[in-house]
Amino acid sequence: MAFELKQNLRLSQQLIMTPQLQQAIKLLQLSRLELVDTINQEMEENPLLEEASMDEGNEEEVHAQAEEDIQSIEREDTAKAVERTEELTGEGDGREEFDWNNYLEDYGPVGVSYDRKDSDALTLDNVFTESPSLTEHLMWQMKLSPLNREEVHIGSQIVGNLDNNGYLCATLAEIAQLENVSEEYVEAVLRKVQEFDPPGIAARNLQESLLIQSRMLGVKNPLVEIIIKDHLKDLELKNYVHISRKLKVPIREVEIAVLLISNMDPKPGSMYSEEKVQPIIPDVYVVKSGDEYKIILNDDGLPRLRISNFYREIMAGLGSHESSEEKNGKKYIRDKVQSATWLIKSIQQRQKTIYKVAESIVKHQRDFFDKGINFLKPLVLRNIADDVEMHESTISRVVTNKYMHSHRGIFEMKYFFGSSVQRTSGETIASKSVKEEIKQLIAKEDPKKPYSDCEIVDLLKGRGIDIARRTVAKYREMIGILPSSKRKKYF
């Protein structure tokens, strides 16, 4: 079998994402906080990018002079500029025509301008303060307690092995082996730690935590301790009649004991959870003006970018007879100008896209903003994509991690999309509206006789919503509502 080399010419088409498009897609799917971090990182890496201050002087003269400098530089080295830009764009003759009057300026808000002077200013009530963690709170108490050095060391091991709810994760044997002491000694230190605040801390299970709280709260009802020790499962199932029969006590006494237990905290360490609650900063404001809704992009906190004017002085200092260092410097500045321009274009395009999508959402969900959640319409990405003439994947990137503020509250833009449920009249209703109907029905039920899932099905049919019992159970679990057996209140 013979081998030979041949050359063949073949034409083919191939889709290649340009760097500009890749950057635009990346910025589009970022949340507001991620966008700010990305902009700050670009400003650190690109010396030609700077944040424009609000008290700039006459910027028009600066922009005109900058444009003149760029044009003179491009006339000196046109061929190199053509070769460079042709590789990046792949369109036309390869020349990148910069609109310096637009891109050397800082970009402003898209759509309606929004003056935040009339809005609520940041007050001291809205400033977050650092609260002590559970570990810090317990160690502070340990330093004030009459423990010797060895007991403090073992107590530190106990505190360090508590979970977010305040329960001890490690066993006494593990701590004893680590500290080379007996388990009895560790247990003695554990009992001292369990006397710290909050009550019930450092327990090994729920039963022990409730018993500690009962002792520290000074509960004198002996029935409380008996129920916690022997009938915790019946207590969970609210089977108070069974407890009354087994203990041979009146049901009223069981109810009084259960009422005392229900005031205890099953997660004593949760109040010192280290999870920080971050406020949501909306990307879009929906403001009603007369009979219409206006879309306002929130640009507060976003750096207003422009290309630095410092490069003009550097370019002006380069003579006609350039050295290799000067040529490299000129090429570097040109590349950074190109990169900065791409970033500003991408941010502008991102803001415009968010504005269009938000405007389309408000148009489709006008009844929701006028009348409330019960009038939320079924909506899919295809509806918005057809309206704004974009691809569904673009709409999906826009609504992810973006929030909309309105007089109805703050909602993630993805909230307005959802499946539909068929009404008995033939119309459709959004699944979120059905969940709200279920929530309202349960809120108005008799606590001593809560609605079962089958009864909720019948009540929804009376409102023109026909769904199965398993669908009601699924929706109920999604909105965090317990079944009827656990919602029932005896007293």
Explain the layout of strands and helices.
Layout: H1 19-28, H2 32-45, E1 49-51, H3 59-76, H4 78-89, H5 100-103, H6 134-144, H7 149-160, H8 172-179, H9 183-193, H10 206-216, H11 222-230, H12 232-236, H13 240-247, H14 251-262, E2 284-289, E3 292-297, E4 305-307, H15 310-316, H16 324-364, H17 366-371, H18 381-388, H19 392-399, E5 403-406, E6 409-412, E7 420-422, E8 428-430, H20 431-443, H21 453-462, H22 469-478, H23 484-487
Helix pairs in contact: 1-16, 6-7, 7-9, 8-9, 10-11, 11-14, 13-14, 16-18, 18-19, 21-22
Distance, first to last CA:
94 Å
* Contiguous runs where pLDDT drops below 50 for at least 5 residues: 57-70, 76-122
Main β-sheet: number of strands, strand sense, barrel status?
Answer: 4 strands, mixed
Shape: extended
- Helical content band: 40-55%
Mean pLDDT: 79
Tell me the structural class: alpha+beta
Task: Provide the β-strand percentage band.
Answer: 5-15%
Across the major sheet, the strand order is 3-2-5-6
Rg result: 34 Å
Q: Helical element count?
A: 23
In oligomeric terms, what are we looking at?
single chain
| Number of β-strand runs | 8
Protein architecture, described:
With 491 residues, the protein is of the alpha+beta class. Among the domains are: 42-115 and 303-340, no CATH class; 134-272, no CATH class; 420-487, Arc Repressor Mutant, subunit A, CATH 1.10.10.60. 51% of the residues lie in helices and 7% in strands. The protein is built from 23 helices and eight strands. It has helices at residues 19-28, 32-45, 59-76, 78-89, 100-103, 134-144, 149-160, 172-179, 183-193, 206-216, 222-230, 232-236, 240-247, 251-262, 310-316, 324-364, 366-371, 381-388, 392-399, 431-443, 453-462, 469-478, 484-487, and strands at residues 49-51, 284-289, 292-297, 305-307, 403-406, 409-412, 420-422, 428-430. It has a four-stranded mixed β-sheet, covered by helices on one side. Strands 1-4 form a two-stranded antiparallel sheet. It has a two-stranded antiparallel sheet with strand order 7-8. Helix 6 packs antiparallel against helix 7 (149-160) and helix 13 packs across helix 14 (251-262). Mean pLDDT is 79; it is low at 57-70 and 76-122.
